[in-house]
Automatic annotation (TrEMBL), chain A:
EC number(s) reported in the record: 7.1.1.-
Quaternary structure and partners: NDH-1 is composed of 14 different subunits. Subunits NuoA, H, J, K, L, M, N constitute the membrane sector of the complex.
Main localization category: membrane
Residue span(s) of domain NADH:quinone oxidoreductase/Mrp antiporter transmembrane: 129-428
Top class in the EC scheme: translocase
UniProt GO MF annotations: NADH dehydrogenase (quinone) (non-electrogenic) activity; NADH dehydrogenase (ubiquinone) activity; quinone binding
Protein name: NADH-quinone oxidoreductase subunit N
Family statement drawn from the similarity comment of this UniProt entry: Belongs to the complex I subunit 2 family.
UniProt subcellular location: Cell membrane; Membrane
This protein's record includes keyword RNA-binding: no
GO biological process: ATP synthesis coupled electron transport
Role according to the record: NDH-1 shuttles electrons from NADH, via FMN and iron-sulfur (Fe-S) centers, to quinones in the respiratory chain. The immediate electron acceptor for the enzyme in this species is believed to be a menaquinone. Couples the redox reaction to proton translocation (for every two electrons transferred, four hydrogen ions are translocated across the cytoplasmic membrane), and thus conserves the redox energy in a proton gradient.
Catalyzed reactions per annotation: a quinone + NADH + 5 H(+)(in) = a quinol + NAD(+) + 4 H(+)(out)
Automatic annotation (TrEMBL), chain B:
Protein's gene: nuoK
Subcellular localization, as worded in the UniProt entry: Cell membrane; Membrane
Catalytic EC class: translocase
Keywords: Cell membrane, Membrane, NAD, Quinone, Translocase, Transmembrane, Transmembrane helix, Transport
Subunit composition and interactions: NDH-1 is composed of 14 different subunits. Subunits NuoA, H, J, K, L, M, N constitute the membrane sector of the complex.
GO biological process: ATP synthesis coupled electron transport
Cellular component GO terms, alphabetical: NADH dehydrogenase complex; plasma membrane
Membrane topology: Multi-pass membrane protein
Protein name from the UniProt record: NADH-quinone oxidoreductase subunit K
EC number: 7.1.1.-
Function description: NDH-1 shuttles electrons from NADH, via FMN and iron-sulfur (Fe-S) centers, to quinones in the respiratory chain. The immediate electron acceptor for the enzyme in this species is believed to be a menaquinone. Couples the redox reaction to proton translocation (for every two electrons transferred, four hydrogen ions are translocated across the cytoplasmic membrane), and thus conserves the redox energy in a proton gradient.
UniProt-listed PANTHER family: NADH-UBIQUINONE OXIDOREDUCTASE CHAIN 4L, NADH-UBIQUINONE OXIDOREDUCTASE SUBUNIT ND4L
Similarity field: Belongs to the complex I subunit 4L family.
Length: 487, 104
């Protein structure tokens, strides 16, 4: 490759990724050599960098498909819309980080910031990679950064333990993912997604059992990132051990990235077939459906008996992963739109709920559900915002969560063949989830407060709260804004 | 060319993978668990290199992929050891079954 071909690539398409990369490198250098007076602005620099990347990304709106670096980097509408969610989610999480000026437990705040940025870079590379190798490197960039972020509170025993469980589970999941990828490489002889789908669309013949095994192993490995069954056991422990903004990152951005990679791999590789022939994906749909059903039921049922708020949200996020798997099972033209909308709605409501927990956790020094007792008397603002997020998580009309669930519901019924069992399980799981979401409402509005004094929300804490409330309500009342943006 | 067929390599890799998985799920010592994860990743490398040499459409990509895998596996084990050291400083143990403070 000479200089001329190198320059002929349309590098401008990678502007958002380059921005994040450069900001992360500069911040790590400032953290190493800078004076303390500059260092305290590191999180603000990061927010500015993400804002810049978001602007670059929005300039690419409606741009035609581009693939550079011999198809290893693809820009298409899919990559664009999912990168939008990833950047918005990380931006909100940075506002969460900024809201706490002093942190006794995390002394190395700079590292925290640029690890978040490098994890974001990994997710963005995953969203637009067109090759198994770049996909894997992006995935591992995300995983390794998240392992360190979870372990950041190094004097905290629970954080150590959560991180250790996370890395052991994550290592096994990585091995599974790679083992699946190696089989796929073996039967297709290439790592480029376009070529693999071409190889897969021709008759598989004797290699079909290997392709099936590869499919199952790969899916099991990737289930770790979206925290669905069978790799869901780490979720509650890690969320409890990690600092709250990190838990929010794992439950929103990392999960969105997991869905990105699953859609990219399974829908593009395995779902291309000769017209009329059954594709490998459609013959394996039962397997994915079972995982979706188990995630919905296990997540929501175990959440019933949780008293620690972060564990409760963790189990509910396992349930949500199950909901988002439904459109992937019932493949139709609406699948991408439904997954995208649900993930966007989910980011706003989950980050909002984590923000309320974060504020209360700082003032009460506890994560137990009792921090919510009598919250309406102590701080009506917090109580009402938490109510909005919980109603949205439960899927009550008027909120973004309702529209997301409704779309998934309609999509699954109108798919061919209609997924009545999945829809039924989803309805049951939603009703179960009302029990624990409304229990928190009871704590806030009916119980007498167990903690003294009023709680106020300062300016920095108000920014992410207001953003999340706006997102949840606007998407709930005018969902077509987001849906038009997507298409 | 050697006379060992592709299937033999694949079976060895599968056995290695299963041994690694078994060890990772049952061993008490965290260091052994990390080594078992390495074993699983090495099974992947064996697969990739075997496919790259004897596969239906043999090409060099598999070997490049395995180089990436080796590098990332090294990074992963480094992070794992760092976390383990932080854990050991606080609890003076490396046993998995003593990681039980986080429970419902």
């Amino acid at each position: 490759m000479d200089l001329k071909t190198l320059l002929s690539f349309e590098w401008g398409m990678m502007a958002p990724e380059f921005t994040i990369l450069i900001v992360a490198v500069i911040l790590s250098l400032i953290d190493l050599f800078g004076k303390d007076s500059i260092k305290k602005y590191i999180p603000s620099f990061a927010v500015a960098g993400i804002g810049l990347a978001l602007i670059f990304l929005l300039f690419q709106y409606g741009h035609e498909e581009v693939s550079i670096l011999y198809d290893t980097y693809i820009f298409d509408s899919f990559a664009f819309s999912f990168k939008f969610i990833l950047l918005i989610g990380t931006l909100l999480i940075f506002f969460m980080v900024l809201s706490k000026q002093k942190d006794e437990e995390i002394t190395d705040r700079g590292e925290y910031v640029y690890l978040l940025l490098s994890a974001l870079l990994g997710t963005m590379m995953m969203a637009s990679s067109g090759d198994l190798i770049t996909l894997f490197v992006g995935l591992e960039l995300l995983s390794l950064s998240s392992y360190i972020m979870v372990a950041m509170r190094k004097r905290n025993k629970r954080a150590n333990e959560g991180a250790m469980k996370y890395i052991i589970n994550g290592g096994i999941a990585t091995a599974f993912t790679l083992f699946g990828m190696s089989y796929i490489y073996g039967i297709s002889g290439t790592t480029k997604l376009v070529d693999i789908s071409r190889e897969m669309s021709s008759a598989l013949g004797t290699t079909e059992p290997i392709a099936t095994v590869g499919f199952i192993i790969l899916f099991v490995g990737l289930a770790f990132k979206i925290s669905s069954v069978p790799f869901h056991m780490w979720t509650p422990d890690v969320y409890e051990g990690a600092a709250t903004p990190v838990s929010a990152f794992l439950s929103v951005v990392s999960k969105a990235a997991g869905f990105v990679i699953i859609i990219r791999l399974f829908v593009t590789i395995f779902n291309t077939g000769v017209e009329g022939n059954e594709t490998l994906y459609s013959s394996m749909i039962g397997f994915v459906a079972i995982l979706a059903i188990l995630s919905m039921l296990i997540g929501n049922i175990i959440a019933l008996r949780q008293r620690n708020m972060k564990r409760l949200i963790a189990y509910s996020s396992i349930g949500h992963a199950g909901y988002i798997l439904i459109p992937i099972v019932s493949l139709s033209a609406m699948t991408l739109e439904n997954v995208w909308f649900y993930l966007l709605a989910y980011s706003f409501m989950t980050i909002g709920a984590f923000m309320v927990i974060y504020i209360l956790e700082q003032s009460e020094k506890s994560e137990d559900i009792s921090i919510f007792t009598g919250l309406f008397q102590r701080s009506p603002v917090l109580a009402i915002s938490m109510t909005i997020f919980l109603l949205s998580l439960a899927g009550i009309p008027g909120t973004a969560g309702f529209i997301g669930k409704f779309n998934i519901f309609v999509g699954a019924i109108s798919a061919d063949p209609a997924q009545y069992i999945l829809v039924g399980v989803m309805a049951v799981a939603t009703v179960i989830s009302y029990l624990y979401y409304f229990n928190i409402l009871i704590q806030m509005f009916i119980r007498q407060p167990e903690f003294e004094g009023r709680r106020t929300v300062n300016k920095m804490q108000a920014v992410p709260l207001i953003a999340c409330i706006t997102g949840t309500i606007v998407l709930g009342i005018f969902p077509f804004i987001a849906l038009n943006f997507f298409s | 060319m050697s006379s060992v067929p592709l299937q033999a390599y694949l079976i060895v890799a599968l056995i290695l993978f299963c041994i690694g998985l078994f060890g990772a799920l049952t061993k008490r010592n965290t260091i052994i668990v990390l080594i078992c994860i390495e074993l699983m990743l090495n099974a992947v490398n064996l697969n990739l290199v075997a496919f790259s040499k004897f596969g239906a459409s043999a090409n060099i990509t598999g070997q490049v992929f395995s180089l990436f895998t080796i590098t990332i596996a090294a990074a992963e084990v480094a992070v794992g050891m760092a976390i383990l050291i932080a854990f050991y400083r606080n609890k003076r143990t490396v046993n998995i079954d003593e990681m039980n403070t986080l429970k419902e």
